[in-house]
């Protein structure tokens, strides 16, 4: 890795999209960089969840992580250790800075908020602990954004993709998830939001507690969900449909499961592309006529494709990737 700071910027979301692709490519091709990325990502998630803690606790957390990394490194790999330590120092610096930003209230007009983005790349599922101790799972291809006043003056989240949230109760500061115009307001609950921009639909599944659906541009828009209900919001028509469902069918993705219930093949293709970070090419339009039902837990891509081929009038062919390209699958 030419610049270790690139890994830090990648994890904190402060990186140009073009540079991001280059950095990800380097990480995937270099085992040492991949290991560094994993350790740094773990450290950042841990320390960012400690922003509400006193400074001495943040420093102790850093010291413990340093000790753990040092003890795991053979003597002949001390150079790698110093790289890890350098990145961790930078992380602690940022965590401490954000801690003080969150605590010190600016009295000047035009106080600028700073934003943190957490990204789950395609092919990954990420678990995040927010400053208020809420726990969030991010599905593949998801970005979650919050500001440095989170859990101090607000609990505002912006979501692009899919997330399952276990929200810590705070009656004074409700948590609000925004996806375009739609806002999901909660105090403390367990629910799932699927809001991939390309789907033109936001689905909200409530497992426990209660949630309120609002619209930033329509004050009369107000819906309340009960546990076991799913709201389907059409982002183009601005209409909501509420159905009774089994929440587990829509939330077990966080445990690595894939459940399809009367899913059009177009939806199946999107989910497989996100989960396995692949490109699926449809050579025959008749593929889209198939409806798919299945439940997968530990199956790999080939096993899932074999089952699709067995249960639907569809054949597939894997096209070997060249260089850093994604694996392609041809459906016919």
Key terms:
three-stranded mixed β-sheet, about 325 residues, about 30% strand, single chain, alpha+beta, Phage tail protein beta-alpha-beta fold, 3 domains, 18 strands, 13-stranded mixed β-sheet
Q: How would you summarize what this structure contains?
A:
The protein is of the alpha+beta class and 332 residues long.
Describe the structure in your own words.
The protein has helices at residues 4-12, 17-29, 31-48, 55-72, 78-103, 248-251, 265-276, 301-311; strands at 115-120, 126-129, 135-138, 142-147, 155-166, 175-179, 182-186, 190-195, 201-208, 211-215, 218-225, 229-234, 239-244, 258-264, 279-282, 291-296, 316-319, 328-331. With 332 residues, the chain is α+β, with helices and mostly antiparallel strands. It has three domains: 4-103, no CATH class; 115-250, Sandwich (Jelly Rolls); 257-331, Phage tail protein beta-alpha-beta fold, CATH 3.55.50.30. Helix 3 (31-48) runs parallel beside helix 5 and helix 4 runs antiparallel to helix 5. The model is unreliable at 48-59 and 72-110 (pLDDT under 50).
Average pLDDT, rounded to a whole number, is: 80
Whole-number radius of gyration?
22 Å
Distance between the termini: 41 Å
Domains (count): 3
CATH topology name of the largest domain, in short, is Jelly Rolls
CATH class of the largest domain: Mainly Beta
Largest sheet, in brief, is: 13 strands, mixed
Low-pLDDT parts are 48-59, 72-110
Give helix and strand order, one letter per element, not per position: HHHHHEEEEEEEEEEEEEHEHEEHEE
Would you count the extended β strands for me?
18
Helix content: 25-40%
Strand content: 25-35%
The assigned structural class equals alpha+beta
Shape: globular
Task: Count helical runs.
Answer: 8
CATH architecture of the largest domain, by name, is: Sandwich
